[in-house]
Amino acid sequence: MTIKNILTSGTLAAALGLALLGTSACKKDFIDLNDPTRLVTTNGYTDSLSIVNGVTAAYSSLQDTYGKSGANRGIFLFGEVPSDNSYTVVSGERLNEFDTFSLVSDNPRLQNMWQYSYQTIARCNIILGRADGVKLTAATRNRLYGEVRLIRALTYFNLVRLWGDVPLVTTEIANIADAYTYGRRPVAEVYKQIEDDLAFAEANLPVTQTGVNLGRVTKGAAQGLLGKVFLTEKKYKQASDELKLVIDAGTYALQATYANIFLTTNEMNSEILMAVRYTKGGFGVGSPFTNYFLPAVSTAIAATVNGGVGTGQQFNSVDADLVAAFTASGTTDVRAAASYGTATTTTTPIYYTRKYNDTPTTAYDAENDWIVLRYADVLLLYAEALNEQGGGNAAALDAVNRVIRRSRNLPVATAAPAVDLPASTDQATLRTRLELERRLELNFEGHRWFDLLRTDRAITVMNAYFTKAGATTRIDAHNLVLPLPLQELQTNPILTQNPGYN
Q1: 151: in domain
Q2: Are 326 and 213 in the same domain?
Q3: Residue 279 CB contacts under 8 Å (≥ 6 apart), including other chains
Q4: 75 near 116, Cβ under 8 Å?
Q5: Which of 145, 173, 193, 476 has the fewest C-beta atoms lying within 10 Å of its C-beta?
Q6: Average pLDDT for the chain
Q7: Which residue, 353, 368, 383, sits at the end of a domain?
Q8: Are residues 13 and 161 in the same domain?
């Protein structure tokens, strides 16, 4: 039984993790009621099994933040829809506000992401506060701590990139009054905690996970994520050093065929450093993305892609601007065919991503994992970190050339094919090419908007995109962070709103 199977039996674990959550939506007199169906955390986490179940609950929470039917729509709404890769046709759920940069603080999707993120953090904090009192070997305890500290770091990394200053909670909140003492902390302070958590995870996680532990996080995941964090902070030397550890370890490798990365029969393959795991079968932990992303207009497409199970929602559709970027890349770029398809039953083509194709058991219950970090991402991040330290770096060119070769179905280790960037490539040219390669390589994996933020290119790229499309929308600095959810502001008076939002 892998971590994927363990999640299907995680109901008790999830309940344990939820015991002190939901404070933002409940009045105190309701909280004080004695609910006989509610598990109190003081009655749990008293033995090794409950600690392990609690760690599983933290993994389970990642489904809520990265996307789950009946919970948060997912990271795609924050990482793809605001970008030039994607658009949504859905206005009833107010997803379109992310697409048009017209967000209002009462948007329920903001509240969902905030709530489920802090639920994840709370589950991690409970383990970190309770496991010292449980009989475990030091190695086991530190490994479990490493897992939840990585999960906590990833969650804060998403929060700080979305909202900027956010409440920093690193201990279990024992009562509702304490919850109201947490105001927003500076971005630098949040990043310091993220770095500390990932450094601990790096030191205490195993190099690989196999058998029943397959899918749990590893040392390489901690190193890769820490390198990405350093790069986001513009700590370029630290970023390249950390990412080089992943490359030099030899634990991960590019898949020979790009399309194979995303097959449900090839999950946790050699390229995957970390993924949020899902499994179909009516267990409540299936992936919704097949139905979320399919066109809403084509029965024929649905039958081909998902066996006709459920309808497409078109929450996250491939923008024609991304298709044009693939067209410009040339017919030899095999990533295009693996990345998107076309619904041709309408007069205007509708493009959809192929990275989440599966036949669900029922609607929103498919098998597809959400890849958080993979080796091609690491190679491109490494090239970026080196390039920002000075142009003309042979190691940077080698890293990006490996990704380019695979995109043309050429052996990664082949000797200097014509598609390689030349040794004379300067810093500015490589910056531009890396932006393009990341867009094409990692499309619809939740990275594009965050990439534009990290490289300070969001305003320039998006305003050019709107101009080209003939749209009147323009963005400025205030759009680079989200409005805090209205419900949180009303509940906790010490929270403040981001500039430019009501």
Answers
A1: yes
A2: no
A3: 4, 5, 7, 8, 285, 286, 367
A4: no
A5: 476
A6: 91
A7: 368
A8: yes
Give residue-wise pLDDT tens across range 386-413.
999 997 789 999 999 999 999 999 998 8
Percentage of the chain lying above the pLDDT 90 cut: 81
The pLDDT tens digits for 413-424 are 877 789 999 999
Q: Which two tokens stand for residue 461?
A: 């790229």
Residues pairing with 86 in the sheet: 318
Please state, as a whole number, how many other Cβ atoms lie within 10 Å of the Cβ of residue 232: 20
Q: What is the pLDDT of residues 134-163, one digit of tens each?
A: 999 999 999 999 999 999 999 999 999 999
Q: How far apart are CA 175 and CA 401, in angstroms?
A: 54
- Longest Cα–Cα distance of the chain, Å, equals 71
Cα 139 to Cα 356: distance, rounded to the nearest angstrom: 37
Query: Of 477, 501, 279, 480, which Cα lies nearest the Cα of 370?
Result: 279
Range of the domain at 39: 3-217+480-491
DSSP state of 475: -
Number of independent structural domains in the chain = 2
Amino acid, single-letter form, for residue 372: V
Same domain, 12 and 147: yes
pLDDT above 70: percentage of residues in the chain: 90
Q: Is the dihedral of CA 210, 213, 216, 219 positive or negative?
A: negative
pLDDT, tens digit, 9 for 90 and up, residues 435-454: 999 999 999 999 999 999 99
Neighbouring residues of 369: CB distance < 8 A, sequence distance ≥ 6: 267, 268, 272, 275, 276, 277, 278, 287
